[in-house]
Fold:
Amino acid sequence: MLKHASYLDSIPPAQGKFKMEKSPYVHNRLRWHSSLMKLTFWSFIFLALIFIFFYRSPSSNPLPQDPSRRSLRTYNWGGPAWEKRVRSSARIRSRDGISVLVTGAAGFVGTHVSTALKRRGDGVLGLDNFNDYYDPSLKRARHALLDRSGVFIVEGDINDSILVRKLFEVVAFTHVMHLAAQAGVRYAMENPSSYVHSNIAGLVSLLEACKSANPQPAIVWASSSSVYGLNSKVPFSEKDRTDQPASLYAATKKAGEEIAHTYNHIYGLSLTALRFFTVYGPWGRPDMAYFFFTRDILKGKTISIFEAANHGTVARDFTYVDDIVKGCLAALDTAEKSTGTGGKKKGPAQFRIYNLGNTSPVPVSDLVSILERLLKVNAKRKVIKLPQNGDVRFTHANISLAQRELGYKPSTDLQTGLKKFVRWYLGYYSGGKKAAG
Ligand SMILES: O=C(O)[C@H]1O[C@H](OP(=O)(O)OP(=O)(O)OC[C@H]2O[C@@H](n3ccc(=O)[nH]c3=O)[C@H](O)[C@@H]2O)[C@H](O)[C@@H](O)[C@@H]1O
Structure:
């Protein structure tokens, strides 16, 4: 009451409306008025706080214009029918088969690896967040393909630890093929946080679930040739330094290798990193040069071919996807079991890193010449200086370690591989299908 009175007293009588009167009626009205004002004031503060909380809260629905968070939307999963589909997809159907959780299953390499595993009778369950880094309709088409092969894809994010843990509760996966990632070298300058989100936080979320699973699975995952960064000694060997990345993408893949080492060391998880060298082929990624060069050559659009200083060649050790798939399956088949149980290490576990390349780098201008011949269209070329956007001048894999330990032997040259890609591209995008996004 005292507070109330003093509040009223502080209002100068000159403002008339609240001038103190002796009448008890007027006095009561004033008290009522003041309470109403206070109520309005505090309600406003309360609503403002609620608004600020929801607007800034990380658990609110992601804003579509913030692509680093586009994969945090909620998905429908769970229930007896869902669990049945998960179990059935992961069921091993051959002697000595393995049961594999493939993350990024609707991605380029993920689709090929999942199909190959399923074909030989392994149990395969896919996990993919279907984000829109590139045309999601291509991911949906791969999804349909996998569906026909009997691979079920759970729609969700590797950062959703509750979902990932649930998958390990429903299925005792023997292996994880971890391919979910934010790929692409140049896009890291546009959307750096998406790389941290998928390649670092997502990896940790997945490894946390793996370490606590019983039994712990063996994990094979995709690192990248980009970890060799600015190295000039060729061919790149697994023994070479990897401490001078040229892009944030490369840095997150390098960080992933160190994180993997930690989980191997502390929890006894069996971990194998595969450093992929510029993988290409049917069902590929529209953000990669061979893919959008094909689209632009067909449209008559000028393509930019990067060139290093002093007319230096920019080259890549382009590797055909079927060769990569063989390398992935060999890595899964030779992976030793993890040694931990109940989240505790019981003994030393396997830790491996392999280059999976083609061992014959091709200049980007030669790649364009091959495409011109296959498409029977001359490209409108513009040679420009290699932009400072994370691209390195060349890559070249030394694959002797993978050859020795995995029996890895790439057998598709760029001409043959691109021919298969172009045949797929023309088939996929003709007949009423949309142009590649
Ligand atoms: O080897 C790898 O680990 C990496 O391979 C590719 O990265 P990148 O080799 O840069 O592949 P593209 O983006 O398809 O570029 C191929 C070549 O074309 C060149 N390029 C690209 C774009 C362009 O407009 N013009 C052009 O000449 C690039 O400099 C590069 O030499 C993938 O995009 C990465 O996700 C992967 O990790």
Remarks:
- The longest strand covers residues 218-224.
- The two ends are 68 Å apart (CA to CA).
